[in-house]
Amino acid sequence: MKLKKMDKNVLITGASGGIGYELALVFARNNYDLILTARNQAMLQKIKTEIESDYSVNVKIISGDLSTHDFPQQLADILSTENISVEILVNNAGFGDYGLFYESDLVKQQEMINLNILALTKLTRLFLPEMVKNKKGRILNLASVAAFIPGPFMSVYYATKAYVLSFTFAIANELKGTGVTVTALCPGPTQSNFSKAASVDGSKLFNSKIPSAASVAAFGYKALMQGKTAAVHGFSNKLNVFFAGLAPRKMAAAMTRKIQEIK
């Protein structure tokens, strides 16, 4: 069987683990065919086999590095050539880094900006026109509670998520009346490989009980289907975002530093 040509197709980036993988399972349970992309071809193949065995859906995998300049367009071209439409785009791929900015690896910071911001923007621009034309579509952008505050020791990561949130609100406003919605999912610390990859395991952020990637994915799916523009996961995160909005940014940065500092 092949993927549906006109609808019930969802493209998920960063689908080889964490929230991206759990979102793939949620969409599969809701009878969506999947287009999954990540760098790890072997893991994508394993997930494809698992999902097609467990659910009556089709899975197409396309491996590649979205932090590179060309891959977003290549991905869109592959789907266009095969006449596969994307009804739902999930911009999940992203990563963080920990440390003082002036000591950081500049190449890694650039790759983070390319993936967290540029790839997300490109994919949105590439797939949005067809959604508007069809008067049907949804986009889920993975932001974070980090989007609402400055983040010492993870300055670039927090800044990229602020971009994602602002970008989502802006285009959601532009898309009113088109039949297309855009949602920013804003989780806090989550059980995934993120903390290890970002070298932030030792901070207080990840020392307390944190939610599973599956619970975040289920929450994000529901918010997407409800057409919400922003969805903050968890009551404590909602409170933190509320009070962060009341505090001066200098104070918010100082508070975030105290929480994130690894001693």
List keywords for this structure.
alpha/beta, 7 strands, 263 residues, 48% helix, 7-stranded parallel sheet
Structural description of this entry:
- With 263 residues, the protein is of the alpha/beta class.
- The protein is 48% helix and 14% strand.
- It has a seven-stranded parallel beta sheet, with helices on both faces.
- Helix 4 links the parallel strand 4 and strand 5 (137-142).
- Helix 1 crosses helix 7 (213-225) and helix 4 (106-134) runs parallel beside helix 5 (155-174).
- The model has no long low-confidence stretch (mean pLDDT 91).
Q: What is the average of the pLDDT values? A: 91
Strand content: 5-15%
User: What is the CA–CA distance across the termini?
Assistant: 54 Å
User: What low-confidence regions span 5 or more consecutive residues with pLDDT below 50?
Assistant: none
Strand elements, count:
7
| Number of helices in the DSSP assignment | 9
Helix content: 40-55%
| Structural class category | alpha/beta
Using the CA coordinates, give the radius of gyration. Answer: 18 Å
The biggest sheet amounts to:
7 strands, parallel
Please provide the ordered H/E string of secondary-structure elements.
EHEHEHEHEHEHHEHH
Going across the major beta sheet, what is the strand order?
Answer: 3-2-1-4-5-6-7
CA-based shape: globular
